[in-house]
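The following block was generated as part of the benchmark described in Methods. Ligand: calcium ion.
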Amino acid sequence: MNIQTQFCGLILALTLLFLSFSRRSVWLRTRKAFIFTLSMTLISLACDIGSVMAITGSGGDHSLNTIAMCKAYLISLIFTALAAYIYLSIDIQVNQKRSNGKRIAGVVLAVVASAAVIMLPIEIVYEGTFKLYTSGLSVMVAYFTCMWFIVINLFILLTNRDEMSVRRWNASVIWMLIWVAAALIQFSKNEILIVGFGSALGAMIVFIRIENPESYVDRMTGYFNSQALYAYMDQAYSMEKRFMILSVRVVNSHYLYERFDNHSLHDFLRNVAVTLAKEKGCHLYKNREWEFVLLFENSDFFEASAKSVEEITNQTWLIDGEYVRIDMSLTKVPDSSIVMDAEDMDELLRNFNKEHETDVKRVYTLDRMWASGYRKKRNLENMIVDALDNERLEVFFQPIYGIRQDRFVSAEALVRIRDINGEIVPPGTFIEVAEESGLIVDVGATVFEKVCRFIKNNHLKEKGIDYIEVNVSAVQCSRFELAQEYINIMEKVGLPPEMINLEITESAAINSYDALMYNLKKLREYGVSFSLDDYGTGHSNLNYILDFPIKIVKFDRQMTQAYFSDVRKRSIMRHVVDMIKDVSLEIVAEGVDEEKQFNALSNIGVDFIQGYYFSKPIPSGDFLNLLNETENHDIIYGKA
Ligand code: C2E
Ligand code: CA
Ligand code: CA
């Protein structure tokens, strides 16, 4: 009998069904649809075998029994194709409501086609065991309906390529192509009954590549893994279903690695998993190496578990026969709607946990406020990257007046971003984010090169400018490469290093003493000078900073303004000025915006004045005009 291939297909489909149930798995909708497809494949193979047996048994007559068997087979084929369609359309889920409607239309089509198969005539051809097939209108309707579904499926796959993972897409395409090939073979040579086997083969590929429940299981603990968590969250977001998360992490893993071998640590982690899995109303996932996630759909269960898990994090654990205190922290995410999709939630949770890695506190809540702060930061980062890529960093200059010299002797270079709307974004908005993300390294170098070119191209020396002050962030100073990179830039531009004064802050010395010392010495030897910025904010421990080769101290605006607000502060400031002069440093007072301030500060021995009294930071062109208008250079040549 010509049913060997069907039998192979039957065994294959049965095995797959067995494997699908042999492992615990997340009941995703795609999984349900796959099980449905597999079951339909199984039924259609059984009907196929049944109909071949009925035909051969009856010698090819058109008895009701044989006809019923053949038509049942045709109907089961239609439903297998429908199941595949439902599987793929659930997987895409671009628009929940619309695709629901389409799926209902698919079911209606399958039912109508089945009714037609029942009503329309069928022709049974039987010329011996190896030449046996059915034809007629009934068969035509079944084949064309199946073909219709296959074409629709291929269409879905082609138009939604971006929505699917490459793996999923490839497997689904192969699945459909196997069907097309099998259908074409059977269509052109009726007696090769291969469609049923083809569909089982296709299902096997989908199983191996995507629907294998093994791929959702964490090997070490036997619970779900991060892939399962992601798939679950993805589905919940597309169905607009709210969920809550408890994330439990072991913080002192480094210490554990040092003390225990891998085997005992795996036992410990399994132990933690078993303990957490006892929580009610949730699924347990092992998300990252040292992180477990409990996911809830019901907030009562969530609240209850939040308390009991907090206790779990405080308990001692038996590792390798020893009771050990483990530093665990717990992050609660009470509302999944703070982000729009699984990818964002994954990223948010990862970054939230990273940010709190070193805190002493152990229980945190990731809420909407943190999420929006995080998003703002990310937007700023994107803006900075975009500005770097598209040359939208601009340097403004704020002139610095020399009291002794009676002219502008310098200027501070201050960075701005010109955003896509042409508006100026001040550094207060983005410098902190640039420092946190490390983008400040590129921002700093870009600003520095722009400044070097500006000085060189406009012959600032001849315009009375002795040097330009450029800000260097503490983050930059902590990199040993800084000095050489800046020297390379000056060499490339051909700028005499005496034209550069770098402003550093005390925090750079506190955070990375060695690197700062190395960079400063190297650049100092090359010919660059330094200012200490922000003096008068924070601790301002001058003793500490005296180790470094500094030429100028810059009084912060706060300090300058305090001088005029309080008699005692005035007296302190006089002493500070004397002290700084004692060690032969020069002083810039920042934030001077009135004439009386200018006069007072000149009288106590400040060397340079920077502030709105003379000028705000201005674009480079305006700065050049200012130098020309005030005949800054005439002043020097006049005096010389
Ligand atoms: P900063 O280094 O202390 O720069 C002085 C700030 O005080 C400038 O703000 C300047 O516009 C402002 N200022 C000067 N005189 C007056 C005044 O009389 N009244 C008032 N109200 N403000 C005055 P800006 O340009 O917004 O820069 C803010 C900060 O951003 C800078 O503080 C500096 O820490 C940072 N920054 C600016 N450019 C760069 C850069 O290229 N690299 C790095 N790392 N940081 C930069
Ligand atoms: Ca500065
Ligand atoms: Ca300053």
